[in-house]
Specification:
alpha+beta, single chain, Cyclic Phosphodiesterase, Chain: A, 5-stranded antiparallel beta sheet, 9 strands, 4-stranded antiparallel beta sheet, globular
Length: 179
């Protein structure tokens, strides 16, 4: 079985800038810098048959290269106790076109569509039950103006993920170039 997701990776300079704001929230489990990414589509667990169909099907995705901008920080769920802290992605039609093209190819191989609404973000940390809300709101206030503009996106990736007691371990399975 494979636990899969499709993501956009970032250059080291972007990962460094993101990592530089990841502190000051007790109980936060910060995402390691080398695993910083934008999940375009979480697939979940699939068997060998679907794995090979996904790898091949994603080769049919046609979408244009684009630039992406990061802006602001926030948390999920929006109206309850925070569980995840994130960096936001500015609205981007080309990214949505990529997501739609990926979804079309996954549907063609009979994978169920994603049930959750797509909210593009980069996860910074997962929060423990004891994380003080005041520290989360302090983090949001201190980093609310976080912004990185014009990150070129020329490819997307298929990753597998293995959950371990110390966190997820991601492995690159395939790369796909954009036009």
């Amino acid at each position: 079985m494979y636990r899969l997701f499709i993501a956009i990776d970032f250059p080291d300079l972007v990962k460094d800038a993101i990592a530089n704001i990841c502190f000051g929230v007790p109980g936060a489990k910060w995402v390691p810098k080398d695993q910083s990414h934008l999940t375009v589509r979480f697939i979940g667990e699939v068997d060998d048959y679907f794995y090979s169909r996904i790898v091949e099907g994603l080769e049919n995705v046609t979408a244009s290269r684009f630039d992406l901008s990061l802006k602001g920080v926030g948390y999920f769920p929006p109206r309850n106790k925070p569980k995840v802290v994130w960096v936001g992605i500015e609205k981007n039609e080309a990214m949505m076109d990529l997501r739609d093209a990926i979804e079309k190819e996954l549907k063609a191989i009979n994978l169920a569509p994603e049930e959750r609404k797509f909210s593009p973000h980069i996860t910074l940390a997962r929060l423990g039950l004891q994380t003080p809300l005041s520290k989360v709101t302090g983090f949001l206030s201190a980093n609310g103006l976080f912004k990185i503009e014009s990150i070129p996106v020329g490819e997307f990736h298929l990753y597998s993920s293995v959950l371990t007691p110390s966190g997820a371990v991601h492995r690159l399975e395939a790369k796909y170039a954009l036009l």
